[in-house]
Amino acid sequence: MIDLVIVDDHQAMLDTLRLWFEIHYSIEIKVVGCFHRGDQFLESLRKVQPHVLLLDMYMPQSMSGADIAHYVRENYPQIAILVFTSRIDAKSVRECMALGVNGIIEKDRPIQDTLEALKQVANGEIYLSQKALRYSAEALSTGVAQQQSGEQVTELTLREKEIIQWIAKGLTSKEVAVKLHTSHHTIEKYRKTIMQKLHFNKMTSVIQYAIKHGIVDV
């Protein structure tokens, strides 16, 4: 069971999502809070810390989504953050990645896609919608990519590259393990090795690097 908090400045969106999860996905998702103001959500964290925060980045009232994400990442790093947005472009993707969010998905995606994204980030995985993944290639011109601009490509094994390619398609470690006929533990070890080799601490940065150097096609 995933404990979920939703933060969105549109009350109709909050009500719709809560009702949908309660009616159709109550076995998998428990909505423990809905807030249309960031300050209300941050106050609630003193009592309840969810597994996942579904966060609208563009909230004109009180606090921005970026402010909320920064606060949560600094003070409650165990909470996975899934950005739920109606606006997605290279700049917004770059900003989200810089904040260390766990996933990005558009509001107009089917609810089943949102559910899958929630499951993946709750499981410690990275989720990027196909649109976010495409824009992440453009985002490489700044941010994390700047650290790589003058460096040679780190040598990765064929198996490491294959694992990155599957993860970039949105597969979890367990699903990659099935594809490659190996164990979940083995894939997790590969993930750690890959991040150590590339000097990254997030798989989103690994995927960005892989796109830049032609390991992953978008």
Give the SSE map:
Layout lengths: L1 E6 L3 H14 L4 E7 L2 H7 L7 E4 L9 H11 L4 E6 L4 H10 L3 E4 L4 H12 L4 E2 L1 H10 L18 H11 L4 H7 L4 H15 L4 H10 L6
Parallel strand pairs: 1-2, 1-3, 3-4, 4-5, 5-6
Helix pairs in contact: 4-6, 8-9
Percent in helix: 40-55%
Q: Domain count, please report it.
A: 2
Largest sheet, spatial ordering of strands? 2-1-3-4-5-6
Name the assembly state.
single chain
Beta-strand share of residues: 5-15%
So what's the CATH class of the largest domain? Answer: Alpha Beta
CATH topology tier name of the largest domain: Rossmann fold
The mean pLDDT is: 83
SSE string: EHEHEHEHEHEHHHHH
The biggest sheet, with number of strands, parallel, antiparallel or mixed sense and barrel status, is:
6 strands, parallel
What is the architecture of the largest domain at the second tier of CATH? 3-Layer(aba) Sandwich
Helix vs. strand class: alpha/beta
So how many helices? Answer: 10
Low-confidence runs? 141-150
**Number of extended strands:** 6
Question: Which radius of gyration do the C-alpha atoms yield?
Answer: 17 Å
